[in-house]
Amino acid sequence: MKRTANAVWHGTGKDGSGTLSTQSATLANVPYSFVARFGDGKGTNPEELIAAAHAGCFSMQLSFLLTAAGFPPDELKTGAVLIMESDGGGWKIATVELTLTAKIPGISADKFQEVAAQAKAMCPVSKVLNAEVKLAATLA
């Protein structure tokens, strides 16, 4: 399986701007810039997209594992907070904090925590990140 995306950038790093597009066209020439990345400017940024991808990937992985264990979920709500830190002359993604609230009929708290931890470890986005991944999982 292959997925593609494209970025176009014009100008300097601080004053320039660009657009991001994805194969699915869900993102089609979506603006991004220094101000959107390091401030509150309009548009998206790579870290926001990674956080969204991580929340989605983890939720889907958890759903597969729960269903296989006999506990199909009613609802999984996952938030992701991506934390960047200074790294010498640049930046690095240091941590992603996943926060899950789940509605899963019939599952015990221990089994829920076990499967959630498995999903965190197995999620392809978790695997690709060179960052600490934290998980706070709560049954609703």
Automatic annotation (TrEMBL):
Alphabetized PANTHER family for the sequence: OSMOTICALLY INDUCIBLE FAMILY PROTEIN (PTHR42830)
One Gene Ontology term from the biological process aspect of the record: response to oxidative stress
InterPro entries: KH_dom-like_a/b, OsmC/Ohr_fam, OsmC/Ohrsf, OsmC_Ohr_Peroxiredoxin, Peroxiredoxin_OsmC
Protein name: OsmC family peroxiredoxin
SUPFAM superfamilies: OsmC-like (SSF82784)
Highest taxon, organism lineage: Bacteria
Organism, as annotated: Niveispirillum cyanobacteriorum
Database matches in Pfam families: OsmC
GO terms of molecular function: peroxidase activity
